[in-house]
Design a protein that fits this description.
Layout: E1 4-5, E2 11-12, E3 48-53, E4 58-61, E5 64-65, E6 70-71, E7 89-91, E8 96-108, E9 111-121, E10 129-138, E11 143-155, E12 162-168, E13 172-175, E14 185-192
Antiparallel strand pairs: 1-2, 3-6, 3-14, 4-13, 5-12, 7-12, 8-11, 8-13, 8-14, 9-10, 9-12
Length: about 190
């Protein structure tokens, strides 16, 4: 089909990819012409941010998956689809690069170490491998500790990739939780495409 410049200023007959590279620049684009669906990578900006927390204080002894969680509902608004959770396991709503941050507060007496661990499964939950961990110790009576860790993971398959959080302690500790603030909890931010 021939390229035709019409009397009203429109152009017809240009096939997709028919213009030479560089002929259209950002000045030629109409306002709001490029949507997130047409953008790629980090140009889209943050398309998902979610935050969960431990809503009540409880005791734990040994290494265990952290369960009984709630989404932050205090001055927080979810961006995008968000995470879902079942028995402490979080599948991912879409593929992409995710920043995952864990904050864990506890108190105990004379405990050698208190740790928070982020574990990732790439085989639908058959096995979980440690991707981040951090530790502190409680050296005196009623000693409060705060442990934080973070990791960026590349989620390439939403059917097989899952994440969960574990305590790592050799004896009984009290995990500090509350439903009105982020005392112990987790933040998920999708940074961009995989």
């Amino acid at each position: 089909m021939a390229v035709v410049i019409n009397g009203n200023g429109t152009v017809t007959g240009v096939s997709v990819g028919g213009l030479p590279d560089g002929i259209v620049d950002t000045d030629m684009l109409a306002a709001n012409a490029v949507t997130a669906a047409k953008a790629s990578g980090s140009v889209k900006g943050i398309t998902m941010a979610d935050q969960w927390r431990i809503p009540t204080t409880y005791t734990v002894n040994g290494d265990s998956t952290i369960t009984s969680l709630e989404r932050n509902d205090t001055d927080f608004e979810l961006i995008g689809t968000g995470m879902t959770e079942s028995s402490g396991t979080f599948p991912f709503p879409s593929t992409g690069q995710y920043l995952i941050m864990a904050s864990f507060n506890a108190n105990s007496t004379n405990v050698q170490y208190i740790g928070i661990v982020i574990k990732l499964s790439t085989d639908s939950g058959s096995s979980f491998n440690t991707r981040a961990q951090n530790f502190d110790s409680a050296a005196s009576t009623n000693y409060f500790v705060s442990v934080n860790t973070q990791v960026i993971v590349d989620i390439t398959n939403t059917s097989t990739h899952q994440i969960r959080f574990h305590t790592a302690v050799p004896s009984t500790i009290t995990v500090e939780g509350t439903s009105s603030q982020q005392r112990s909890g987790f933040t998920f931010i999708r940074l961009g495409d995989t």
